[in-house]
Structure formats: structure tokens, C-alpha cells
Write a structure and sequence with these properties.
The chain is mostly helical. It has one domain. It is built from 7 helices and no strands.
Length: 201
């Protein structure tokens, strides 16, 4: 096979891969943008706001803000909850903490079972509703966090796709450049054929 033909075929194959990587990068970028926009808009509609800086300054056990929450939530003090990272922090270090302070650890199944076993206990009946609401909100926030992580993965995958496409495009350009400089009569495996002739001689 002529070296020029090989260079052209290899370069065309590389060009097809570049196109595929660019398409993949474009789709991944769209996925990231869609996920980020959806998570932001859905969370913003809930109008959840983190406790104020004053609440963190006076954090005490048993109050709205406990000292254990400060490392995770203080940086968001007073801000609206609009990102996946904020949703994860609020779910795991605010709602989960308050649920754990409830009877039966705030686990809805346990609180509900206890309430059914003691139907006359009105305080326990109220805890069932609180536990249900808290558990549901926590689950929804963690789901938003999970989707935001998928979006982040898509973003870095898009960066990788575009980077690989750029590197491969450079190699393709070099391949076409080399094909133009290579004489048409030059064989690809000329040295290998010469070695075989020497062995068979």
C-alpha cells in the first residue's frame, strides 16, 4: 500500500472521530446546561432560605441552628437555596439533624407505626405529619443534588471530549500535511518487504 493512501485513510478516520467527539461534547454541554437550569429553577420555586448569620452566631443545641451545623451551613447563611450543593447541605445537615431530634429519630415508618399503636396520642400524631414533610423535603432536595452531580459529570465529560477532539484534529492536520509531502510511489511497508527478501534469499 502506498504511504500517501495510508496517511489519507488514517486522517479521514481520525476526522470522523473528531466529528463524533464534537457531537458528543455538544450533547454533554447541552445536558449540563439543561440539568443546571432545571435544578436551579426547581429549587428557586421552593423559596427556601438558609438561616441568617445571626442564627449561626447564636447556635445552641436544641435550637434552629446547632453548633454541628456551622461547618456545613454557615457559608450559606441568609442565602436562597438554588444549587445542588446547597440542597445536599440543607438536607443532610439541617433537616436530617432536626429529624434526628424527633421521637424515633424522625424516621417516618417508626413514628407512623408508634402513632397507630397509640391512636389517642395527639402529640405523636402531629409528629407523624412533621416527619413525613421533613422526610419528603429531604428526599426531594437530595434528588436535586443527585441531578446536579449528573450535570457536573456531563460538564467534565464535555471538557474531555472537546480536548480530545482538539488534540486529534491536530494529528489529523499533521496526517494530511504528511500525505501531501509524501511521494505517491512510496510504499508503506517497503522496509518490511526488503527484510523478507533478505530472509528468503
Amino acid at each position: 500500500m502506498q504511504r500517501k493512501i495510508f496517511d489519507v485513510l488514517a486522517s479521514v478516520g481520525g476526522l470522523l472521530i473528531v466529528v463524533a467527539l464534537l457531537v458528543a461534547g455538544g450533547l454533554l454541554t447541552w445536558g449540563y446546561a439543561f440539568t443546571s437550569s432545571s435544578v436551579h429553577s426547581q429549587l428557586a420555586r421552593q423559596a427556601i432560605v438558609f438561616p441568617s448569620k445571626a442564627a449561626f452566631a447564636h447556635a445552641k443545641p436544641g435550637t434552629e441552628v446547632t453548633p454541628a451545623m456551622i461547618p456545613y451551613l454557615a457559608k450559606y447563611a441568609g442565602l436562597p437555596l438554588t444549587t445542588g450543593a446547597q440542597a445536599e447541605a440543607y438536607a443532610d445537615h439541617f433537616i436530617a439533624v432536626h429529624l434526628s431530634e424527633m421521637p424515633y429519630g424522625g424516621v417516618y415508618a417508626n413514628v407512623s407505626a408508634a402513632s397507630r399503636a397509640h391512636p389517642s396520642n395527639t402529640a405523636l400524631s402531629a409528629e407523624v405529619q412533621t416527619s413525613f414533610q421533613g422526610t419528603t423535603l429531604r428526599g426531594l432536595l437530595l434528588e436535586a443534588y443527585a441531578f446536579s452531580e449528573f450535570g457536573l459529570i456531563a460538564f467534565w465529560a464535555a471538557v474531555a471530549s472537546f480536548t480530545l477532539a482538539g488534540l486529534l484534529a491536530l494529528l489529523v492536520a499533521l496526517g494530511f500535511w504528511h500525505a501531501r509531502r509524501t511521494p505517491y510511489e512510496k510504499e508503506l511497508f517497503v522496509h518490511l518487504e526488503a527484510e523478507r527478501e533478505l530472509v528468503n534469499a
